[in-house]
Amino acid sequence: MDRIWSRVNGESPLVHKFSQCLNLEEEDCRQLARFEAASRSMGAREDIVVEGEPYGQAAVLLEGWCIRYKLLPDGRRQVVDFVLPGCFIGLHAHIFEVADHSVSTLTPCRLSFFDPQLVAETFAERPRLGGALVWDNACREALLMERVASLGRRSAYEGLAHLLVETCKRLQWCGGLMPGDNRLPISQTVIADTLGLSLVHVSRTISKMRSDGLIEDGTRRGIAVRDLDGLMQVCGYDETYLHREHLPARRRSRMGAETNLRVRPLIVGLGGGGSPPRPVPP
Amino acid sequence: MDRIWSRVNGESPLVHKFSQCLNLEEEDCRQLARFEAASRSMGAREDIVVEGEPYGQAAVLLEGWCIRYKLLPDGRRQVVDFVLPGCFIGLHAHIFEVADHSVSTLTPCRLSFFDPQLVAETFAERPRLGGALVWDNACREALLMERVASLGRRSAYEGLAHLLVETCKRLQWCGGLMPGDNRLPISQTVIADTLGLSLVHVSRTISKMRSDGLIEDGTRRGIAVRDLDGLMQVCGYDETYLHREHLPARRRSRMGAETNLRVRPLIVGLGGGGSPPRPVPP
DNA sequence: CGGCTACTTGAAGGATTTCAACGTAGGTGG
DNA sequence: CCACCTACGTTGAAATCCTTCAAGTAGCCG
Q1: Do residues B57 and B116 touch, judged by C-beta distance below 8 A?
Q2: Which regions in chain B score pLDDT beneath 50?
Q3: CB burial class (10 A; 0-12, 13-18, 19+) of residue B266?
Q4: What is the pLDDT of residues A198-221, one digit of tens each?
Q5: Whole-angstrom distance, CA of residue A253 vs CA of residue A249
Q6: Mind giving me the DSSP string for A147-163?
Q7: Which of A121, A278, A280 to mutate to test the interface with B (most CBs of B within 10 A)?
Q8: pTM of the shown model
C-alpha cells in the first residue's frame, strides 16, 4: 500500500483537471506549469499543514494521497476530505494566518510548492484560469456539503458505500485510478475517522460489504471496489454535487471571463407559500 | 418565533460585515449598496434555492434566518448551515447550472436579489472588495469543516453545545443578536436535522442541557443561551476556525491593499421539514 | 372547539462503541 | 532465518448512545 499512487500518464495534473472545464491555450498551460515547477517528494504520514500553526507555502499534489483533517481538543480525529492528485493544499495561506485544519500525506507523495502570490498573478494575467480556480473551489465546497449530509444522515453502511463511490469517481476524474488496479490506499482507521465511526465498527461494516460482494477482500492492500453499481444503489448515489454534467461544451464558454454571465429567472416560493419539502413522520 | 429577526440598527449588513475586515471607502460602500438595492420580504418556510433545479438570482440576506440543506433521495434532510444576515445566497449561480442544495427561509426575511454579474463587476472595479469576498468565502468553508468535525466526532450533547456557541458568536459578529433577547429562532426539528439526530433525542438532550442550567426554557419561543462559558467548556470550544483573531489591525492592511493585493479574486460563493426515520441497513 | 405544530415522555430495539483478546503481515535487527 | 516489534485487521461480549414507536401535553389559529 506504500507505493506511489502515480497518475496514469505523465500528464500534468493541473492541465488534466482544468482542461476538463476549459479549452486551455498555450499560455494557460505555461501558467499552470509554474504551479508545478518545484516538485518534491514526501513519505507517507508526513505533515504538510498543521492545525493551529501558520500556513507554510501552498502546494499542488502531483502524485499520491493526502488527508485533510481536524483534531478535537481530546484527540479525536475527523478526516474532512481526501486530497487527490491535482488538488491544492493550503491555498488559504494568503487569507488566514493560522491553519484551521491539518493536512498529512497518506501515501508517499510528490507535491509542488509555490508562493501563494502566484494565485493572485494567475487571476490578473489569465482570468480564464482564475475562473477555473473559482470553479474548482466551488466544487470542493459542494463535496464538503455532501460529506455533511453523509455524516448526519447516512448509516455506516450507506456512508461507506457513498465514500467509496465518490472516491472512485474523483479518481477517474483526476486520472489517479490505476488501470488494472482499483484499490484505494485507505486503511480502516482512516475510513473510521472519515465516516465518524469507530475502527471496530468499520471493520464489521467492511466485512459485511465484502460478504455482500460489493467490495474485494483487499485487506492490508487497500480496499477495492468490485460492484460500483451495487454500491451506488446502496447509498442512492446522486452525482449532481460533483457538477460534471455539462462540462464539455457549455462550461467552456461560461467560465471564461470574457463571456457574459447569464441571468436566470427567480425560483421562489414554489409550493404556493407552503413549507419546504418535508417528509413528516406520521 | 415568527417575528422578523431584525438587525440591531438599520445599518447595511454587508457594510457591517466587511468593515470588520476592511477599511471601507466611500466607493466601497456605494458598491455594496448595489447588492442591497432590491430589497424584498419573504415569509417563513419559503424556498429560495431548490436542490436539483437551476439557480435563480443570487441574494444577500438582510434580515431573518435561512437554512441551507440537502435532501437524500428518501427524504432525510440534513441542514448544512444557518444563513444569517449579511450572508450571500446562491452565489454559485454563475458557476453551476444546477443547485446542489436548497435554501429556505426559517423566519420571515428580508433579502435583496441581485444579478450574479455584479460579483464579477465588483472584482473588476473594487478589488479590495473582491478580496473581502474571498475571505468571506474561506470563512464559510472553515465553518463547514467544523460542522463535519462536529457531526463525525462529537456526541449529541457536545454537538448541541457547539452549535449554540457557534451560532451566538456568528450572531454577535453579524449584529443579528437582539439586545435584550438572546433567543435563537430554531426549532428542535431544525436542530435535529443540523446535528444529524432524531427529533426525540434532541428533545431529551435539550432537556438535559436545560436542567444543567446551560440554556433557558425557551420552548416554542426559540432556544436561549444562559451560560455561554459553560457551553464552551462542554464542547471544548476553540474559536480558531472562525478566523477572527487579528481582524482589527493586521487584516485591514492585508485584505485591502490595492497596492500590494496578495489575494486576488478567488471568488466563489455559496452562497423546513424533518428527516424521516433512517432505514435499517440490510 | 377542532386542528395544527412543536414539544415531551416511556418503553423497546437497533446501531454503534468500548473493552479486550487474538491474528497476521511487513520491517528490523540480531 | 528467526525473534521481535509495530501497524492493521478481526472477533466476541457488554455497555451506551441514539432511534423508533407510540401516546400525550401544550400553545396558537381560525
Answers
A1: yes
A2: 1-3, 8, 248-272, 280-282
A3: buried
A4: 999 999 999 999 999 999 976 777
A5: 7
A6: HHHHHHH--HHHHHHHH
A7: A278
A8: 0.87
- Taken in order A173, A177, A182, A185, is the CA torsion positive or negative? negative
B81 grid coordinates: 448551515
* Residue of B45, B52, B268 lying closest to A240 (CB–CB): B52
B32: Cβ–Cβ under 8 A, 6 or more apart, which residues? Answer: B12, B14, B15, B18, B24, B129
Contact A146, B272 (CB under 8 A): no
Distance of CA A66 to the CA centre of its chain: 10
Cell digits of residue A51: 492545525
Spanning CA of A282 to C1' of C2, the rounded length in angstroms is: 19
Q: What are phi and psi of B71, to 5 degrees?
A: -120, 135
By C-alpha to C1' distance, C14 is nearest to B280
> Cell 429556505 maps to which residue?
B104
E-assigned strands of chain A?
Answer: 39-42, 47-49, 58-63, 66-71, 77-83, 88-89, 102-105, 109-114, 183-184, 215-216, 223-225
Q: Supply the pLDDT for residue A257.
A: 31
Residue B37 CB neighbour total at 10 angstroms = 10
DSSP secondary structure letter of residue A94: G
Nucleotide nearest to B207 (CA to C1'): C8
SS3 B18: helix
CA distances A46 to A42, A49, A110, B2, Å, are 7, 9, 12, 51
Distances from the Cα of A174 to the Cα of A18, A36, A83, angstroms: 10, 16, 11
- Give me B225's grid cell: 443561551
In one-letter notation, the amino acid at residue B48 is I
